[in-house]
Design goal:
This protein has twelve helices and eleven strands. The protein is an alpha/beta fold. The longest helix has 29 residues.
Length: 330
């Protein structure tokens, strides 16, 4: 008969359970690595978009690197939250991933009173792959050729102190808020459900200024129907070398959207590392760069840790902007 005291027996049983759990996790990770079953790459934006193209570029690279089918599954709606809901419910076995912008993780927590997910606890960052800027554009209502001309008109005529964006809580919305704070102009925000309608309104003279993804603006900009006055990133777009950044224009605003690959919470570190290597390989090299530039995207590969660090910085910045703007969470 054992004379082991209850405390020692409890400690021994806990250690045995912990060891068994670690072995199970290691075995599960190994099985997932050797698995040849299909990987589903969710994309919360519709087919044909820059995000969709990037998801397919990454999927092709992962398919080649992992020797497994990787299928892009578009689940648009609710600002990518529908797709994130599916990812949250998925098993952390590497069979379900998502290509998603950082906004749902870093902006939404500050603009919605309730989310169906925890942006930190419910997901595993795998790595960033690409980035894109938003553009600030004018149309025939102002005929401004520089952002400073546009702002001068907005100061002198309140009816021109308005901008459209793809919707409340979008990066474009907060670039507009940040521009207003930086310049002391109180803008009226006009949210749209889709970028196509907003671009038409700008080109038709019904909207004085539009802030949205550069890829949505570039065709009409090149045709002369609208004019992109500035871009939001830290550097000029290689596809629009004559368009200055906001900072170059004297406005202390710089924001870029990052697209990253994520998995459900609890993914094994070895899976994260392997998937990161495959995703990063997708956007390296001149051919990938040229393909991304067609959508005004830029390669931005990173480690999982670097993506987590970037998201933490964005979270702090958007918390600051929301507070300064007086925006009321929905």
């Amino acid at each position: 008969m054992s004379h082991e005291d209850p405390e020692s027996r409890g400690r021994r049983e806990a250690l045995r359970a912990l060891g068994a759990g670690a072995l199970a996790l290691a075995a599960g990770g190994a099985r997932a690595e050797d698995d040849k079953s299909p990987i589903r790459m969710l994309c919360g934006i519709s087919a044909g978009s820059g995000n969709d193209f990037t998801a397919r570029l990454v999927a092709d690279s992962m398919r080649e690197a992992l020797g497994r089918p990787v299928v892009v599954d578009n689940k648009p709606g609710a600002g990518q939250r529908i797709a994130l809901g599916e990812l949250k419910r998925a098993a952390p076995d590497g069979r379900t991933l998502i290509l998603c912008t950082t906004g749902p993780f870093t902006i939404y927590p500050h603009i919605y009173k309730k989310l169906d997910y925890d942006p930190v606890k419910d997901f595993t960052p795998i790595g960033a792959v690409a980035s894109f800027d938003v553009g600030i554009a004018s149309g025939p209502l102002t005929h401004a050729t520089t952002i400073q001309q546009q702002l001068a008109m907005a100061r002198s005529d309140k009816s021109l102190a308005a901008f459209g964006s793809p919707g409340n809580g979008s990066l474009s919305h907060f670039v507009g808020i940040a521009t207003g704070i930086a310049t002391g102009i109180q803008f009226t925000h006009v949210p749209y459900k889709d970028s196509g309608t907003s671009v038409v309104d700008l080109a038709s003279g019904r909207l004085p200024m539009l802030i949205t993804g550069v890829s949505q603006l570039v065709e009409m900009h090149r045709s002369g129907r609208i004019r992109i006055l500035a871009v939001s990133g830290a550097q000029r777009s290689p596809s629009l070398p004559d368009v200055p950044t906001l900072k170059e224009s004297g406005i202390d605003v710089s924001n870029t959207t990052t697209c990253g690959v994520y998995g459900p919470a609890g993914m094994a570190p070895e899976l994260v590392q392997r998937f990161n290597a495959a995703a990063v390989a997708a956007v390296q090299g001149q051919e990938a760069r040229d393909k991304l530039l067609k959508f005004l995207f830029a390669p931005a590969p990173s480690s999982a840790q670097a993506l987590s660090t970037l998201m933490a910085g964005e979270d702090r910045e958007f918390a600051r902007l929301v507070k300064l703007s007086g925006y009321q969470p929905e």
